[in-house]
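Quarterly update from the structural biology core.
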Amino acid sequence: MALQSLLKGKKDSLLKKWFDQTAQSYPSQTTEFLKNNKGQFSNPVGYSLKKGLEGLLDALSGDFNDETLKNVLDSIIRIRAVQDFTPSESVYFVFLIKSIVAQELGTQVEGKELLEFNNKIDRIALIAFDVYMQCREDLFEVRVKEVEKRNFRLLQVANQLFELRGDAALSQCQEDSHTEKETR
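Predicted structure, tokenized:
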């Protein structure tokens, strides 16, 4: 229980460091934008990242519920799943809190509490990977449906052209037949 109290007491400092280190995973210009632009509408990625990390920190210092974690992680992972991150890079931010807590709290947390904390982080990382895979699967399904729609539309156009050509060819045959009869 002491760890939960310490996490709550250092929440702002922990959150700032976790956000800053996670922002470092982006290219340098993006990192600066994420850190310096705090608006929800002018910086939706930074806003979602900060709110998501705050939710994870709240879960670590209070109720630890898998369903809540999935929802919190979804706000971060959904964005990272469509960016140029590998799967491991997409979920790596979860592990950053381990070293941040070690730096901030030092020897105040040891033994069983530290082991339980590290196990919670590992659990969050596994859930994050599941969320990542679901996001990638959803993205893949959207792409497949888009290709199917495009192919269906191309077939419709091809059929329309075939029908027009077929009607024109039939008309031409009928004209040729009529002209041939007249010349006989």
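Residues 22 and 93 are 5 Å apart (CA to CA).
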